[in-house]
Each structure stands twice: as C-alpha cells, then as structure tokens.
Amino acid sequence: MSGKPAVRTDDFAGPVLDWYRQFGRKDLPWQLDKTPYRVWVSEIMLQQTQVATVIPYYQRFLEKFSDIRSLADASTDAVLQLWQGLGYYARARNLQRAAQIIRDDYQAQFPRELEQVMNLPGIGRSTAGAILTFASAQSWPILDGNVKRVLARCFRVAGWYGQGKTMKALWDIAERLTPRQHTGQYNQAMMDIGATLCLKTSPTCEACPLCHCCESYQYGTQASYPEKKPKKTKPVKQTLMLLHKYQDRLLLWRRPATGIWGGLWSLPEVACRDDIDDWQRQHLSMTSPCSSISENLLKHQFTHFRLDISLAVIELDQLPAKVSDNEDMAFVAIEQLPEYGLPTPVRRILETQ
Ligand code: SF4
Q1: The whole model's pTM is what?
Q2: What domains are there in the chain, each with its CATH number?
Q3: Residue 34 Cα, ligand 1 centroid: separation in angstroms?
C-alpha cells in the first residue's frame, strides 16, 4: 500500500454521494419497501451472484417466503428448490438456519446489534453492515467484492484478499472513509461504482467519481490491483453417477445435508464401475447390468476442485421394493423432475438422457 489514504473523508465520500444521486441504482427490488429481511435475502443471494441473475430468484423467493417466520417454518427441500441454479447451496441452508434462530431467539424480529447479526449463520461483517445500513439506517462500513476492488485500486493495497494484513488494511480504509451521515447511500454507491465502473477488466476511470484521488488511475496500475491469489492447480476428482431407469421413472438420491450440493436431490454415485453391483445390492437388494457408460460426460468446476462426472445407465425390469423404505431415495417420473431441487450439472445431464 502507498501508506494511509491521504484523502480526507469528505473529499472521498462527497463525490461518491454526488455520483449516487445522479447514477446510483435506486429501484432494485430489494431497495423498494426495505425491511431487514428483504435486504438480508438480497445480500445473501448477491454474495456470489450478479444482480441481473439474482432478480428473478429473489422475486420467486420472496413470493414464497415473505417473512422470517415463513422461511423458518418451511421444509429445507422447499427452500433448496427455489435456490436451485443459484449455486453455493450452503447460503440457502444458512439462511434458513438463521431464520430459525431469529424465530426462536428474537421473536422473529431481525436483530439490530451488529454483533448479534454477525453471529447468525452465513453472515459476515460486511453483510451485517450492509443489512443494518440499508434497512435500519445505521452507520457501518462494508467490504463486499466490489468495494474491495475499488479501495484496493484507489489506495494500491498490497497482497490478496486471503491475507489477513490485506483485509485489515482494507477494513481500516473502509472505516476511515465511510461517512456517518447517508451511510446507506454511500455504501450502495461504492457497490455500484465497483459493479458498473471499476470493472475487473477495463475500468471506466474517466466516468468514475474517484478518479481525482485514485492512485491506480494516477499511476496507470489498475490491472495490478487487487493482486491475484497465487495460482494453484485445482485438484480433479472423479465420480460415476448411476442413472437407474424404470419405464418413465428414474432413481434420485438425496445427498447428505452437509458437503457439496448438501440436501439436494441427485443421482447415486460410486467411485468406479467395479462398485456398481455392490451399491445396487446394498441399496436396492438386486443387481442389473449397465446398458452404457459415458466417461467424463461433464466437467464441473467448483471453487476448490474440478469434478469429472461419468454416467452409467442401468435399465430395470422392475421397481426394487427396497426403495420405498428409504425417504432419501425415490423413483421419480420425468415430468416431476422440476419439483425436485437438483444441482445444475445433474439437471443438465438428465436433460440429455
Ligand atoms: S478511477 Fe478507475 S481504478 Fe480508480 S476506482 Fe475509479 S474506476 Fe476504479
């Protein structure tokens, strides 16, 4: 970093607020009729996903779960089904767990203290600050992905976000520059500047209200900040999914609540083709041969690894009786698949079969 930000708070926040009044986004669905619940749901959806993608999901979610109590009382399946396609499903599970805590410990009223909010599952310091500034008119700094990029460039903050000293430097700057008045507008503007001007590649500096004090603009170092995480090759994992078909039905299996795609319906999996018979004996009390195996049918990128999915298709002559005893397995008619929360890659595989 080039040292402490030399710019005064007013000289930084003033142009940001002026820009917001002229260009900031003011009519996003969660900006209308603001309540902590509505803002909270939007902040969680926006954590890994862009605004345009989030809007239809957000509207469907709010239609079904209009308040904390309805979300807390819902089945996890119903919540995951509405999250299907947004990815990062832990967000949905945490959202519901937090709603249950708020129902049980806070009489279904969203807490108002920063620390209480940060103690809820899935809510970090920045999200807690955003909810309380946007919905409760409090004054807290935020540091979401867009704001981090703007500050890292403006003040040439060294290091990448996984490093404690880099995050501390960014939080120090955010705390120093966030104004006590109009904090919600300022925070929204900083997010908007990051999302619309200070883009990852080719930022539009000439239109930016911060170009008068941005060190990266001054020195032409926009591409060097934020510094990238040192590259590590992602490990590759293999799995073999089993598609058991009986007439117009196929066998789905509900994944464990924790881990990837936790709680979603998927296809049974084994490590390799030698394990297929054992799996069938154990879970269906029968064995049937594979009619085909497609190797590496789909390669799916997770944050920390790549999953190469192969598919074995198994046609059955009869429905195995054992399935009916197990609530985590179901033979589902193809036209009923939309009612099940499935991971996107699995849905894509089923669409091609
Ligand atoms: S001047 Fe350019 S690099 Fe600096 S904050 Fe604005 S858009 Fe980003």
Answers
A1: 0.75
A2: 9-224 (1.10.340.30), 236-351 (3.90.79.10)
A3: 29
pLDDT digits (tens, 9 = 90+) for 159-190: 999 999 999 999 999 999 999 999 999 999 99
Task: Name residues contacting ligand 1 (CB within 6 A).
Answer: 150, 153-154, 197-198, 203, 205, 208, 210-211, 214, 216-217, 222
Active site (catalytic) residues:
43
Give the ligand 1 atom nearest the CA of 150: 5
Structure token digits, residue 67: 């308040």
Report the residue among 212, 218, 222, 225 best suited for mutation to probe ligand 1: largest number of ligand atoms under 8 A from its CB. 222
Query: Could you read off the pLDDT of 76-129 as tens digits, one per residue?
Result: 999 999 999 898 899 999 999 999 999 999 999 999 999 999 999 999 999 999
